[in-house]
């Protein structure tokens, strides 16, 4: 039995990493998925094997018209919307004293402002759904810190605050809102760092499971939050980190 049969979803940052793995898993579990990512990136969804389908949509989530365009496309193609997975994100590693306003603003625009704007655009459709879901990708760094991550940590902490407030506001409509906090995951954003064996080894050792996470590890948690199994879970930040935060 498929867990998302008949559900309609938007997944941002869907061309690679956690977003790609989640779009594939959602479709394999029966959902119709609008996969959103930047113009010019390559979408690769040949692996879809299941009752659902994936429609790629090239949009920059920071464009002013992007949220309304994505929601309108989902409504036109699928006849509504049940799941919004705000997953698109960017990283930056610059000490605060050297960070430019432009670099700060770009991280906030993708990691926090777009999350709010996509949620706002999706709410009118989600409150009509019998099982509306918003899932926001935060990070274990939303509750931690590291050198050079001032903009990233601030944005991801903001995602947690936004998630809790949306959960309060949308609960009366039966819409759940939760955040994911990935740990050290092998994605496009971390590939260059983890390509260095000495860096990958350090972060693998920090996990109590002694390995780096894979996108599918986080996608499985996103599937849980999108499914009926999580119908009584809202306003939560769920770490998918292999136990990393037990050590920091």
Question: Concise description?
Answer:
Helices cover 40% and strands 15% of the residues.
Describe what this molecule looks like in 3D.
40% of the residues lie in helices and 15% in strands. It has 248 residues and is an alpha/beta fold. It has one domain: 3-Layer(aba) Sandwich (Rossmann fold). Strands 3-2-1-4-5-6-7 form a 7-stranded parallel β-sheet, with helices on both faces. Strand 5 (133-137), helix 4 and strand 6 (176-182) form a beta-alpha-beta unit. Helix 1 crosses helix 7, helix 2 packs parallel to helix 3 (101-126) and helix 3 (101-126) runs parallel beside helix 4. It is globular. The mean pLDDT is 92.
Task: Kindly list the characteristics that best describe this protein.
alpha/beta; 248 residues; 7-stranded parallel sheet; Rossmann fold; single chain
Strand arrangement, major sheet: 3-2-1-4-5-6-7
Structural class, judged by helices and strands?
Answer: alpha/beta
Tell me the Rg in angstroms.
17 Å
Shape: globular
Cα separation of the termini: 39 Å
Specify the oligomeric state.
single chain
Helix and strand topology:
Layout: E1 8-12, H1 17-28, E2 32-37, E3 53-58, H2 66-78, E4 83-86, H3 101-126, E5 133-137, H4 150-170, E6 176-182, H5 191-194, H6 197-206, H7 215-226, E7 237-240
Parallel strand pairs: 1-2, 1-4, 2-3, 4-5, 5-6, 6-7
Helix pairs in contact: 1-7, 2-3, 3-4
């Amino acid at each position: 039995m498929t867990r998302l049969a008949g559900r309609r979803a938007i997944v941002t940052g869907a061309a690679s990493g956690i977003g790609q793995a989640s779009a594939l898993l959602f479709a394999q579990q029966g959902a119709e998925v609008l996969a959103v990512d930047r113009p010019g990136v390559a979408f690769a969804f040949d692996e879809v094997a299941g009752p659902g389908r994936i429609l790629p949509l090239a949009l920059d989530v920071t464009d002013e018209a992007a949220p309304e365009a994505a929601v309108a496309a989902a409504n036109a193609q699928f006849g509504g919307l049940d799941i919004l997975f705000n997953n698109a994100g960017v990283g930056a590693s610059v000490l605060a004293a050297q960070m430019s306003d432009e670099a700060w603003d770009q991280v906030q625009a993708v990691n926090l402002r777009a999350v709010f704007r996509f949620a706002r655009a999706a709410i009118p459709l989600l409150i009509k759904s019998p099982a509306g879901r918003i899932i926001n990708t935060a990070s274990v760094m939303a509750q931690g810190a590291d050198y050079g991550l001032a903009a990233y940590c601030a944005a991801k902490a903001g995602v947690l605050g936004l998630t809790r407030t949306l959960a309060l506001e949308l609960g009366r409509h039966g819409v759940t809102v939760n955040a994911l906090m990935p740990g050290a995951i092998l994605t496009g954003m971390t590939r260059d760092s983890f390509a260095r064996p000495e860096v990958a080894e350090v972060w693998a050792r920090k996990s109590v499971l002694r390995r780096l996470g894979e996108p599918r590890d986080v996608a499985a948690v996103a599937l849980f939050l999108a499914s009926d199994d999580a119908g009584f879970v809202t306003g939560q930040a769920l770490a998918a980190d292999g136990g990393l935060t037990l050590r920091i």
